[in-house]
Amino acid sequence: MVARYARNPVRYVALLGVVSLLVLPGAASAATFTFASAGPITLQGLAGLSGSSPYPSTITVAGMTETVTKVVVTLTGMTKPVAVKDLDFLLVSPLGDKMILLSDAGSGSADNVTFVFDDAAPAPMAANAFPVVSGTFQPTNWPASVSPCSGGSPVYNEPDPDVFTAPAPAGPYGSTLSIFNGDDPNGTWSLYAVIDCLGSGPGTLTSWSITFTTSPTAARITSFSAAPAKHGVTARWRTASEVDVLGFNLYRATATGPLRKVNRALIAARGGATGASYRVVDRSARKGVRYTYRLQAVELDGTRTWYGSARVRATP
């Protein structure tokens, strides 16, 4: 693993079974951190919906203490003699957030090419790119109707929406890398790669890497957690400082639903330079349902920044 580490230490505490990140105070500054996989990936083919080896390929991230504001992923040294479009890549964070990095793009073969995936890139990879060359692209996922398997007959048709074999998590999947913004990146990141077209030839990937950008923000969040309560779910967070912060919004989502705001009115910031503690009870949470909660800070100039994820099951 290749990495540059943040200086501030981190430690974890558990609150009623929910893990929270505590960031010890320190000077904030914009920086980038890159973590890379330890070895190559074999992209297996011929059988149809074939998982890679290893499956998944993992990267362990440690030492990150500041807020993540951007994520870029690089696939290095890809070789596939037959149709890159038969490949699908799923990226899963330590918190379980998941998105499709590449699917059903590129009709041509690939010979030791490198793909950089960045939400800010000009465009996704073309569905029928030929030849397939190195470049920087938006995360790309074309529907099967636009970019069918290279075989062209019904027996070659791939699942649509995309399917990844266990132990990959089930969909639905995100489509942008920004879903990781504000998350605690420490832990194991997993890259699942499958060839989902019967008869498609195998390939190789030399390595992959993740680059995080961290930036100083008006709010310095030191903890965020959610835990079951007698009447719903209780979310708590603590700030070390919140100068120029207008307030906060609390959002939640189920495994298959979009983020929805919990609070009707903005939760006013009250900590200033010294920070403050907050507690919100989500009484509309349904018993037995698993939720993901996210915190959003709203600055005086209108800037909105996401912080962390907390997963919890409402009291049965």
What topology emerges from the helices and strands here?
Blueprint: E1 10-15, E2 18-23, E3 31-36, E4 41-43, E5 50-51, E6 57-61, E7 68-80, E8 87-92, E9 98-103, E10 110-117, E11 135-137, E12 140-141, E13 187-195, E14 203-214, E15 219-229, E16 232-242, E17 245-253, E18 260-261, E19 267-268, E20 277-282, E21 290-299, E22 304-313
Parallel strand pairs: 9-12, 10-11
Antiparallel strand pairs: 1-2, 3-14, 4-14, 5-13, 6-13, 7-10, 7-14, 8-9, 8-13, 15-16, 16-20, 17-18, 17-19, 17-21, 21-22
What would your notes on this structure say?
The chain has 316 residues and is mainly β. It has two domains: 28-214, Jelly Rolls; 219-313, Immunoglobulin-like (Sandwich). The chain contains no helices and 22 strands. Strands 3, 4, 7, 10, 11 and 14 form a six-stranded mixed β-sheet that branches. The radius of gyration is 21 Å and the shape is elongated. The relative contact order is 0.20.
Contiguous helical run count: 0
> What profile does the largest beta sheet have?
6 strands, mixed
As a percent range, the share of strand residues is: over 45%
Q: What is the average of the pLDDT values?
A: 81
> Which runs of at least 5 residues are low in confidence (pLDDT < 50)?
1-28, 152-157
DSSP strand tally: 22
Determine Rg (CA atoms, Å): 21 Å
CATH superfamily heading of the largest domain: Galactose-binding domain-like
CATH architecture type of the largest domain? Sandwich
**Tell me, what's the shape?**
elongated
Task: Give the distance, in angstroms, between the N- and C-terminal Cα atoms.
Answer: 42 Å
The number of domains is 2
